[in-house]
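Hey,
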Amino acid sequence: MPLALANLAARGRLTAAHVHITQYVSTQGSRLTELAMHAGISKQAMGKLVDQCEAWGMVQRQPDARDARATLVVFTPDGMNWLHAYQEAVAQAQTELQEAVGLDVATVITLGLEAYAA
């Protein structure tokens, strides 16, 4: 994970809302309206989160080649490192859960969490 992002996380400046961006930004880039819709928040609120993540060097805005009026939010190289670290952490947590409670119970917990998040 990039050191700057690790420092923000350690100081409590990086919140769950910022981590949600990790889940919703496509590796090819995403429009702000798409991000807001997936996260279930307003475009303005998502814009503020993207502004913060952009200031931290996690994402950047680029012109959308498909629509000259739109911009895409894309990961920077540091943001891609963040994404990979996030994915590794999730995989590790899933493995640890399965080892602790068994595959069947872990599956039930995962399904319950997915239903809760929906």
